[in-house]
Amino acid sequence: MLTIDLRGQTALITGASGMLGRVIARVFADCGANLILHYYHGREQAEALAGELRSKTGRRILTAYADVTDAESVAEMQRKVAGSAVGMPDILVHNAVIQYEQKPLLEQPLADFDSQYGSCVMQTVHMAKAFVPAMIKKGAGGRIVVINTECAALCEEGWSAYSAAKRGLDGIVRVLAKELGPNGITVNQVAPGWTVTENDRRNHTESRPDYEATVPLRRRGTDEEIAQMCAFLASPLASFTTGAYIPVSGGRVMPGI
Questions:
Q1: CA distance linking residue 19 with residue 195, whole number of Å
Q2: pLDDT grade, residue 179 (50/70/90)?
Q3: Are the C-beta atoms of 186 and 143 separated by less than 8 Å?
Q4: pLDDT(239) > 90
Q5: pLDDT reported for residue 1
Q6: Are 31 and 235 in contact (CB under 8 A)?
Q7: Contacts of 230 (CB under 8 A, 6+ apart)
């Protein structure tokens, strides 16, 4: 029976203190991975998650602070990771993002466009520069999984800064997939739709009928379904998949050929 087996691998998850990041971390730990849990504002959440996963799974877990929009901050995180018992990652999951209130382009502050670009595109640039050289040196390949969004394909009203940044991210990922392919490193994107999270379950807002009517499967996806796709792409089962933009949106986005 096929299983998603990440034993012996170390995964660094950015934004691991957030709602989706925590679920990705739990799924990866269940699959056997040791973890580096990145946080920016959420130190308490990251430390609590680390304790939970150590207790439940026995995995090696490290928490690490960084501002992923700043090259030196990411470099400092790399130095901490390199000197730790967990060691350098075999898998990178770029999940952290800054999001702003949905507004028409004419009302969106200019600073939001720069900030979205920094948290989407430049995060992947900084993380690649900091961690990919060690992957290449190790010579065992590697995995990079980047969280994009259905918004990048749909470009709907009110999402100008977010859509622009995520479309820029798509270009960076495709270039990186071609550049790192000869080293056996795959680079793929997971593009969630409007996902059910812990907050929805707490507030009983899992169902959004107006949105669900636009989804062929007639429901919202869950955070665990997003995390499972990330784990698949990080695993040996996806060893010949790279450069892909994979919507996990119930059919709301269907990329053409």
A1: 11
A2: very high
A3: yes
A4: yes
A5: 85
A6: yes
A7: 24, 27, 28, 93, 145, 147, 190
Show the DSSP H helices in the chain as ranges. Answer: 19-30, 43-57, 71-82, 110-117, 123-138, 151-154, 160-180, 198-203, 209-212, 223-234
Q: How far apart are CA 129 and CA 65, in angstroms?
A: 17
pLDDT at 99: 82
> Between the CA of residue 89 and those of 3, 52, 175, 242, what are the distances in Å?
21, 21, 21, 18
Question: Which domains are present in the chain?
Answer: 10-197+224-247 (3.40.50.720)
* Residue 197, CB-side half-sphere exposure with 13 Å CA sphere: 11
How many whole angstroms separate alpha carbon 51 and alpha carbon 141?
A: 30
Cβ-contact 230, 238 below 8 angstroms: no
CA dihedral 129, 131, 135, 138 (to 10 degrees): 110
What's the token pair of residue 138? 């190790």
Please tell me whether the overall predicted TM-score, pTM, comes out greater than 0.85 for this model: yes
The DSSP line for 21-68 is: HHHHHHHHHHTT-EEEEEESS-HHHHHHHHHHHHHHH---EEEEE--T
Name the average pLDDT for the chain. 96
- What is the predicted pLDDT for the residue at 144? 98
DSSP class of residue 118 equals I
Half-sphere exposure of 47 (CA within 13 A, CB side): 5
Q: What is the mean pLDDT of residues 1-6?
A: 93
